[in-house]
Amino acid sequence: MGSNSGVRHVFRTIFSAAAQRRRAVVRRASAVDVLEQRIVPALVVPVLNSLPNAPVNIYLDFDGHVESSNWNGGNSFTTPAFTVDNDATDYNTEELRRIEEIWYRMSEDFAPFNVNVTTVEPASINDFEALRVVIGGDGGWSNSGAYGLAFVNSFSSGASNSVFVFSAIDPWPKNVAVAGSHECGHALGLFHQSTDSSTNDYRSGNNRLGPIMGTPYAGLRDVWDIGPSFGVGGIQDDMAVMTRPGNQTFRFRQDDFASTAAASVSIPATNGVVRVDGLLETNSDSDFFLIEADAGPLTISLTTLDVNRFYPGLNLNPGTNLDPILRLYSDSGTLLVEDDPSASLNASLSTTVQRGLYYLEVTSIDEPGAVGEYSLTGNFNPLPSIPTMV
Question: What is the CATH architecture assignment of 269-382?
Answer without folding.
Answer: Sandwich (2.60)
